[in-house]
């Protein structure tokens, strides 16, 4: 696509397969793990109020939002950095700490923004294998080399829906050289209620090389606004504040974020809804004879492998669902071509998906 004698991007850029987001044109959209209940009404009100001040630049330091986050999660506001989605913070971390010749390590079915971010700075993405679709700490440690600059672990992971325990994460950190940044991407942490899990803030507080990335796009259901944050050791917060745009988070996003974080009842309801309908969906799909991969998040992988010929084709199933206006995510880019990832939606939506899957298998 590059013109002869035309501008040539830096090495690595043209190796990127551009990220393909979930499709939009359907009446049931379960392809992007957006919160099932939509945003808190309080966040919507705050967003609307922000319309009166559209001529003003946002607070570049996002002070009110950082304070709200710090209060809610028991963190030091000074070491929170907000971004236009956690995607921006992931990119900035890679840009700040890796370059040509360096390696960015992540796990086999890890989130695609890690290899995309690595290639965009000319670094090499390196994959460590998983065990049972779960991050394998020993495999990650075995793939660390003197060139490794960052290790990304989505915990729980998207798209597998699995997690590693706080103990395992600490073991991973303990095995890394001190110059390697461990980024714990806890985009789905709010859905968790497991005693052996930690989103990673304890490691951030104890070590200078651990970052926890969080998002408002999942349980807070503000994906449209692009809002994420990172909790960092002081040195890394300083680096991110140097490389980020001075006004990288819009005022409307900051206002909505503050309101969303304050609406704890809404988050509780969202979490309970998710657990209830995820377990219901898993049971129904299993009863249809399909395989599900158990998930602790707001999505589930449905696996068509082992079905009779024709019914073992995840893409055919996806097209069948799409024909009914139901959008779910294809998984070839994640190395899981026999699976579809289905986000947990409303009760009515989940019932329609089950009916459609049943009809696909019967057709
Ligand atoms: C959805 C997701 C994100 C981030 O989203 P933003 O909308 O950019 O905040 C980050 N990591 C994982 C693993 C995700 O699934």
UniProtKB/TrEMBL annotation:
Record keyword Zinc present: no
Sequence ranges assigned to domain Aminotransferase class I/classII large in this UniProt record: 28-357
Pathway it works in: Amino-acid biosynthesis; L-histidine biosynthesis; L-histidine from 5-phospho-alpha-D-ribose 1-diphosphate: step 7/9
One of the Pfam families matching this protein, by short name: Aminotran_1_2
Stored InterPro entries: Aminotransferase_I/II_large (IPR004839), HisP_aminotrans (IPR005861), HistidinolP_aminotransfase (IPR050106), PyrdxlP-dep_Trfase (IPR015424), PyrdxlP-dep_Trfase_major (IPR015421), PyrdxlP-dep_Trfase_small (IPR015422)
CDD domains: AAT_like
Enzyme nomenclature, EC number: 2.6.1.9
The UniProt record lists the keyword Amino-acid biosynthesis: yes
Catalysed transformations (reactions): L-histidinol phosphate + 2-oxoglutarate = 3-(imidazol-4-yl)-2-oxopropyl phosphate + L-glutamate
Cofactor(s) the record lists: pyridoxal 5'-phosphate
Gene3D superfamilies, per database record: Aspartate Aminotransferase, domain 1, Type I PLP-dependent aspartate aminotransferase-like (Major domain)
Residue numbers carrying N6-(pyridoxal phosphate)lysine: 218
One Gene Ontology term of the molecular function aspect: histidinol-phosphate transaminase activity
Keyword list, A-Z: Amino-acid biosynthesis, Aminotransferase, Histidine biosynthesis, Pyridoxal phosphate, Transferase
Similarity section: Belongs to the class-II pyridoxal-phosphate-dependent aminotransferase family. Histidinol-phosphate aminotransferase subfamily.
Summary of subunit composition and partner proteins: Homodimer.
Protein name: Histidinol-phosphate aminotransferase
Gene symbol of the encoding locus: hisC
């Amino acid at each position: 696509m590059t013109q002869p004698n035309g501008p040539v991007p830096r090495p690595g850029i043209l190796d990127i397969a551009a990220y393909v987001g979930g499709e939009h044109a359907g009446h049931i959209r379960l392809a992007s793990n957006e919160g099932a209940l939509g945003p808190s009404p309080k966040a919507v009100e705050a967003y609307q109020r922000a319309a009166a001040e559209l001529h003003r630049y946002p607070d570049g330091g996002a002070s009110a939002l950082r304070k709200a986050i710090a209060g809610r999660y028991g963190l030091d506001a000074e070491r929170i950095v907000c971004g236009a989605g956690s995607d921006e913070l992931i990119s900035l971390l890679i840009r700040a700490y890796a370059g040509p010749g360096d390696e960015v390590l992540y796990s086999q079915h890890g989130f695609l923004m890690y290899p995309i971010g690595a290639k965009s700075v000319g670094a090499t993405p390196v994959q460590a294998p998983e065990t049972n679709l779960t991050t394998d700490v020993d495999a990650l440690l075995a793939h660390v080399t003197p060139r490794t600059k960052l290790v990304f672990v989505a915990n729980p992971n998207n798209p597998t829906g699995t997690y590693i325990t706080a103990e395992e994460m600490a073991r991973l950190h303990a095995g890394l050289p001190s110059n390697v940044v461990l980024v714990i991407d806890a985009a789905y942490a709010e859905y968790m209620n497991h005693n052996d899990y930690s989103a990673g803030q304890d490691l951030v507080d104890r070590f200078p090389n651990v970052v926890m990335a969080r998002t408002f796009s999942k349980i807070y259901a503000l994906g449209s606004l692009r809002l994420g944050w990172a909790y960092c050791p002081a040195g890394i917060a300083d680096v991110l504040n140097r490389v980020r745009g001075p006004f990288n988070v819009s005022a409307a996003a900051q206002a909505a974020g503050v309101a969303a974080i304050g609406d704890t009842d809404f988050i509780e309801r969202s979490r309970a809804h998710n657990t209830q309908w995820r377990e219901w969906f898993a049971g129904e799909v299993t009863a249809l004879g399909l395989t599900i991969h158990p998930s602790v998040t707001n999505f589930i992988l449905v696996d068509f492998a082992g079905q009779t010929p024709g019914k073992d084709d995840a893409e055919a199933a996806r097209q069948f669902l799409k024909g009914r206006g139901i959008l779910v995510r294809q998984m070839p880019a994640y190395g899981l071509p026999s699976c579809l990832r289905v986000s947990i939606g409303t009760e009515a939506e989940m019932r329609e998906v089950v009916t459609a899957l049943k009809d696909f298998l019967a057709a």
